[in-house]
């Protein structure tokens, strides 16, 4: 898939663990893991907004399009 999820990069930059982020935004760690691994087929805008708010970033910092 040409959409790359860079959530691990942002977590490392902000020095936040997945568990802490999942608690902050109100989703399970397993759902966050699915998102981080790129296995998610979709993401709700409300979830993306919560992630961006918690990590103080923009959607472009998390989602990237790569043309193969």
Description of the structure:
By secondary structure, the protein is mostly helical. It has helices at 7-14, 18-25, 29-37, 45-55, 59-62, and strands at 3-5, 63-65. The chain has one domain (3-58): lambda repressor-like DNA-binding domains (434 Repressor (Amino-terminal Domain), Orthogonal Bundle). It is globular and about 35 Å long. 9% of the residues are buried.
Describe the protein's topology.
Elements: E1 3-5, H1 7-14, H2 18-25, H3 29-37, H4 45-55, H5 59-62, E2 63-65
Antiparallel strand pairs: 1-2
Quantity of strands, as a count: 2
Main pleated-sheet profile = 2 strands, antiparallel
CATH superfamily: lambda repressor-like DNA-binding domains
CATH class: Mainly Alpha
Average predicted confidence as pLDDT: 94
SSE ordering: EHHHHHE
Helix-strand makeup class? mainly alpha
What is the beta-strand fraction? 5-15%
Number of domains: 1
What is the rounded distance between the termini? 9 Å
Identify the notable features of this structure and list them briefly.
single chain, about 70 residues, mainly alpha, 434 Repressor (Amino-terminal Domain), two-stranded antiparallel ribbon, 5 helices, about 60% helix, globular
Summarize this structure briefly.
By secondary structure, this protein is mostly helical. Helix content is 59%, strand content 9%. The chain contains five helices and two strands, in the order βαααααβ.
């Amino acid at each position: 898939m040409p959409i790359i999820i860079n959530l691990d990069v942002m977590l490392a930059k902000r020095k936040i663990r997945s568990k802490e982020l999942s608690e902050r935004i109100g989703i399970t760690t397993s759902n966050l893991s699915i998102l981080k691994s790129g296995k998610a087929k979709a993401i709700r805008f409300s979830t993306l907004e919560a992630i961006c708010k918690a990590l103080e970033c923009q959607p472009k910092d998390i989602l990237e399009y790569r043309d193969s």
